[in-house]
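Q: Given only this backbone (267 positions), what sequence would you predict?
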């Protein structure tokens, strides 16, 4: 088995120019498959609200739900780094609340790091969490928890003023002590500039090829979620179709008494 992925190990990967791979996971079975396939990071994303719970966005996801799903993912991995995603209002109210909730991911769920959204406004919060010994991954650009402020899932950083704000966000996240940062929904040129300016790894999603790594939602990658499909998603398999075919075959076999056969029955 390959070496265990660690926070310092990710920094080394950036320094050596080795691309970092990250996928979301929400349960034991998926985590085990992704881990055995060689994924570097398992992100227990608050995207669970959309792809598992059927919510219109991520805002309704709770800390207790995130702890539950993170615990399941931790049980399924051996090599990958597990990062828990701080849900809406779990870190914005106060630094004390943020540190306590971040600590729950490590103490109760077994995660090795947390991720939170926001740049300059979250600098002191990131610093407080890192000071408590908890590794933090930042997340800037199109931050889904700010969907209502943005007026929808809109690409950020196309205008000069926006670009400058996002660059400042990236630098603030790094200065606060984050070990990596997700760059979401921004022009490729902006993500390239940020990646070149930062010493910490950048993980892109809808941010072009120049980031130090890439992340996708596993349900998008496998074609299991089609309520909406962002432009940046590449579907690597049509598991929804495969599952439906298998289920229809099962239904047909049961109704035609082809299942269970003798090989599935006991004497």
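A: Predicted residues:
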């Amino acid at each position: 088995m390959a070496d265990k992925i660690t926070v310092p190990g990710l920094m080394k990967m950036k320094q050596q120019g080795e691309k970092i791979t990250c996928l979301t996971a929400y349960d034991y079975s998926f985590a085990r498959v992704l881990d055995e396939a060689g994924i570097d990071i398992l992100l227990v994303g608050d995207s669970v609200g959309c792809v598992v719970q059927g919510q219109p966005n991520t805002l309704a996801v709770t800390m207790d739900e995130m702890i539950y799903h993170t615990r399941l993912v931790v049980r399924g991995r051996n090599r990958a780094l597990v990062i828990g995603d701080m849900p809406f209002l779990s870190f914005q109210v106060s630094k004390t609340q943020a540190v306590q909730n971040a600590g729950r991911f490590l103490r109760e769920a077994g995660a090795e790091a947390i991720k939170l959204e926001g740049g300059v406004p979250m600098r002191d919060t990131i610093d407080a969490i890192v000071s408590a010994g908890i590794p933090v991954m930042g997340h800037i650009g199109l931050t889904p928890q700010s969907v209502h402020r943005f007026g929808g899932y809109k690409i950020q950083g196309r205008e000069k003023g926006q670009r400058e704000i996002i660059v400042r966000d990236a630098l603030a996240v790094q200065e606060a002590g984050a070990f990596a940062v997700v760059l979401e929904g921004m022009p490729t040129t902006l993500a390239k500039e940020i990646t070149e300016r930062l010493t910490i790894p950048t993980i892109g999603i809808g941010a072009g090829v120049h980031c130090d790594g890439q992340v996708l939602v596993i349900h998008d990658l496998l074609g299991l979620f089609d309520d909406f499909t962002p432009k940046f998603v590449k579907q690597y398999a049509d598991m929804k179709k495969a599952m439906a075919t298998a289920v229809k075959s099962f239904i047909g076999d049961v109704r035609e008494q082809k299942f269970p056969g003798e090989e599935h029955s006991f004497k």
